[in-house]
Design a protein that fits this description.
Length: 189
């Protein structure tokens, strides 16, 4: 049979430098995520996560932490009602691992600690973070937002106990197989 988007498997292919196409020689299915097929919210979250990876990473550029975070998200999506938290946690990990995560504690413009009592806050993409500096808030390109947005982003940086999307479980048989596959993709001793 074929393989579907949102399944995990081991692929063996013959690649040639300078060519986009590869010859598929082997496919071994390792894990399926039925919740992604059964529930629209889980399907959309999975597809968005996969699309973000495709657009933020280059082919042949391994990112094991992103792989683990994506796999954790797909596993978490099996639980109904966990779609949004799983997707948000994954997006934050993706931003961190690719170097695009904004600074959350220091004012991105002044370098000082963010003023926690400030009523108005802005995100400055050009500065890479948040600011409470009045002149910077009014500057072109600044995005005004609620303090609750910054609070939620800070919550995402903390690993919640039992959150499978945050890190791999060393006792999960799928995880130990992943580690083995990544350490020796040919299965040789």
């Amino acid at each position: 049979g074929g393989f579907e988007v949102g399944t995990r498997g081991q692929l063996v292919a013959i690649t040639r430098p300078g060519r986009d196409l590869a010859t598929l020689t082997e496919w071994r299915l390792l894990e399926v995520f039925p919740g992604v097929r059964r529930r629209l919210a889980a399907n959309r979250a999975a597809l968005l996560g996969l699309d973000l990876v495709a657009h933020l990473l280059h082919d042949g550029d391994p990112h094991p932490a992103i792989f683990d975070a994506l796999l954790g998200m797909l596993r978490t999506l099996e639980e109904p009602g966990r779609e949004m938290p799983a997707l948000l946690q994954f997006q934050w990990r993706l931003l961190e691992e690719t170097g695009y995560a904004p600074r959350l504690d220091d004012d991105a413009v002044t370098g000082e600690p963010l003023e926690e009592s400030a009523d108005v806050l802005a995100f400055r993409p050009d500065a890479g973070g948040f600011t409470t500096d009045p002149a910077s808030i009014a500057a072109p390109g600044a995005w005004r937002l609620r303090r609750s947005t910054l609070r939620r982003l800070r919550e995402l940086t903390e690993t919640e106990p039992g959150d499978r999307s945050a890190s791999p479980d060393p006792h999960d048989p799928h995880e130990s197989q992943d580690r083995q596959d990544r350490s020796d993709p040919h299965g040789a001793d």
